[in-house]
Amino acid sequence: MKKIIFLLALLTGLQACKKQNSFLDGQAITLDENMVFSDSIRTMAFLTGIYSDIAFSFNKGRWDSHGNTEQATDDAEYTLSGVAQIAVILYNGSISPTTYDSRSIVGDFWNTPYTNIRRVNLLLSKLPSTPLSASLQERVKGEALFLRAWYYTQLLIAYGGVPVVGDKVFGKDDLINLPRETFANTVKSIVDDLDKAAALLPVTYPNDIDYGRVTKGACQALKSRALLYAASPLFNGGCIIPGHPAEALVSYPTASASYWQAAADAANAVISSGTYSLMVDNTTKPGYGFYNVFLQRVNPEYIFGYYRAPNRDFEGYYNPRTRGGSSNRSLPTQDLVDCFPMKNGLQPLNADGSINAASGYSATNPYSNRDPRFNYSIIYNGSSYFNATGGLSPVYTFVNGTGTIPAPTATQDAFDVGTTTGYFSRKMCDSMISANSSANTNRAWPLIRYAEILLNYAEAINEAGQTALAYPKLIELRQRAGIDPGANNMYGLKENMTKEEMRAVVRNERRIELAFEDHRWHDIRRWKIAMVTNNQYNKVMKITKNSNSTYTYERRESIRRHNFRPEMYLMPIPSTEINKMPALVQNPGW
User: Fold this and answer.
1) Comparing C-alpha atoms, which of 589, 448, 429, 540 is closest to residue 55?
2) CB neighbours of residue 259 within 10 Å
3) 3-class DSSP assignment, residue 175
4) CB-neighbour burial class of residue 358 (10 A; exposed 0-12, middle 13-18, buried 19+)
5) What's the distance, CA 495 to chain centroid?
6) Which of 221, 392, 441, 442 is the most exposed place for a label (fewest CB within 10 A)?
7) Element of type H or E holding 331
8) 3-class secondary-structure state, position 479
9) DSSP 303
10) What is the rounded average pLDDT of the residues 152-168?
11) What whole-number distance in Å separates Cα of residue 20 and Cα of residue 26?
């Protein structure tokens, strides 16, 4: 299938390029705005360039080729600990407006969105004069408006209200001193762009060459996400310092359940459209649809994705070193492992950490009879995984007898190539290829999928006070996961839950269903639980092999403590931006 998204080079105005080893050596070719937007191919390539950054936050190599925000959560341990590593800066709490600088790579929280917002505005300003047909201009406008909303949503969850530039295109000589927009108006700007874009875009595209472009459903889905963020405790009812002068810039000052209802309605619009569905296959294996959805470019569940050529993207990052994986990666924590229920849908542990006897969990055989999503998300001690010789063999993660967690021999996963948590990630990986094999998978990165929309609805409708309406969405997810229905067809869910009980279930379901999909960092902040989750040592599993070939499993604390301060619920605006634009107001506490 031909894909044009992300395969064309970005052609920007005033950018010099040079063709090497030709008669043009030593000569710069300058493409000004007229050259770009007077040509249809270059105009479309410019749009493609705006698409090319959409996965900057999701990217497993976001920083220094091997880090992103998942390593600053309770889901994953980072294998590096250098104080200059950006993931370390996030998890150890050393972030500040100066160390977190727009000129450094961590500045992509601020720079990447605004760079692309300017690109969108430039495209919109030139679009009427391009040689594109009228109908194509309308479609391109819709795509551009969505992309602008996409990048503003990234800013919203990081900072709250931000400067909203409208359609303005600033030049290099302009003196810019924009104040921040209120939180409410920033949300409104995002929603307005998405509503306009949805009216201009098709439900689907008629040919394969346009597959992967923004659709009406993507606009509705992003609206669902933005409104869910906005309704969350971090933003719904004031800021971390009550009465702070910036309160209206970073929140709705007065809490209201109506924001939750708006988020539920937006999610329901996607659900009611009938355009998307979960990828279900419990015939091949229980929960196989959950595994297979990440290996298919075209599937009914992906609403918006980052489309790549055939690749081993996730295998290269997550696989053990014995399978060719990188040593600089995220390692799943015991905290995450404990969140996965049993196959009967019951949680293995009680809230106090004791074993839930009704679940069937065994401390001596902890990975047996778990939710099938666990097997497709985590490589645990003894898991079978493809190897470079073309077969399946176990990955061992037990200690080597010296107290270190990595496995015992170099042919397995020894100290220098091992895991400090007892686990490797399998999420989104193709278990029939490895990083050191020659095969690739035809996949896309999942930026928005239908499972998120079901979870958005369940969370929002529960918080809006209609807990019973959350059940069907959770049951749909658990049925696809391959969990047993039980005699009451509740898939392990407690009947007649209170809003508080349902909140805990929805948050846990979101954590395991969307693990490593660029949600946890946003979720622990918007729920205002990071002061708990990120002021502790993550849990790991020490596994010891006994003389009789059985194993002893012991939960321990990681050697790396995470630290979180209240002001970290919102990112600090880089000091360089404050210095350039005095009208900006810094976030509370920074």
Assistant:
1) 448
2) 23
3) coil
4) exposed
5) 31
6) 392
7) strand 330-332
8) helix
9) E
10) 98
11) 8
User: Closest Cα partner for 293 from 514, 485, 466, 18?
Assistant: 514
Residues 6+ apart with CB under 8 A from 256: 236, 237
Helical (H) or strand (E) element with 448: strand 444-449
Tokens of 400: 């080597």
- pLDDT value at 2 more than 60: no
Please report, in angstroms and rounded to a whole number, the separation of the first and last CA atoms in the chain. 49
Residue-wise pLDDT tens digits, 57-94: 999 999 888 889 999 999 999 988 888 888 899 999 99
pLDDT bucket at 16, cuts 50 / 70 / 90 = very low
**0.90 cut: is pTM over it?**
yes
Q: What residue has token string 């690739």?
A: 440
Point out which residues pair with 449 in neighbouring strands. 302
The 10 Å Cβ neighbour count of residue 509 is: 24
Choose the weakest-confidence range: 28-32, 151-155, 454-458.
28-32
**116-128: average pLDDT:** 98
Q: Yes or no: say if 521 and 564 are a contact pair by the CB < 8 Å rule.
A: no
Structural contact between residues 125 and 167, judged by C-beta atoms closer than 8 angstroms: yes
pLDDT in tens, 271-281: 999 999 999 99
Looking up tokens 């994953």 gives 76
Residue 295 CA from chain centroid, whole number: 17
DSSP count for the chain of H helices, then E strands:
19, 12
Asked whether the predicted pLDDT for residue 138 surpasses 60, the reply is yes
Which DSSP state fits 328?
S
CATH tag, 302-567: 1.25.40.390
- For CA atoms 528, 529, 530, 535, the dihedral sign is positive
H or E, element range at 555: strand 551-561
Containing 259, the helix (H) or strand (E) segment is: helix 258-273
CATH architecture assigned to 33-62+107-201: Alpha Horseshoe (1.25)
Question: Any residues with CB less than 8 A from the CB of 548 and at least 6 apart, and which?
Answer: none
Same fold, 33-62+107-201 and 302-567: yes
pLDDT digits (tens, 9 = 90+) for 330-348: 899 999 999 999 999 999 9
Q: Is it the case that residue 576 has pLDDT exceeding 70?
A: yes
Q: Is 507 exposed, middle or buried (0-12, 13-18, 19+ CB in 10 A)?
A: middle
DSSP secondary structure code for residue 16 in this structure: E
Identity of the amino acid at 537 = Y
Domain locations in the chain as residue ranges: 33-62+107-201, 302-567
Percent of the chain scored above 70 by pLDDT?
91
Q: What is the pLDDT of residue 378?
A: 97
Report the pLDDT value the prediction gives residue 416, as an integer from 0 to 100.
36
Helix ranges (DSSP H) in 448-583:
450-463, 471-481, 499-513, 520-526, 530-533, 575-580
Q: In 3-state terms, what secondary structure has residue 561?
A: strand
Burial of 394 (0-12, 13-18, 19+ CB in 10 A): middle
pLDDT band at 291 (very low <50, low <70, confident <90, very high): very high
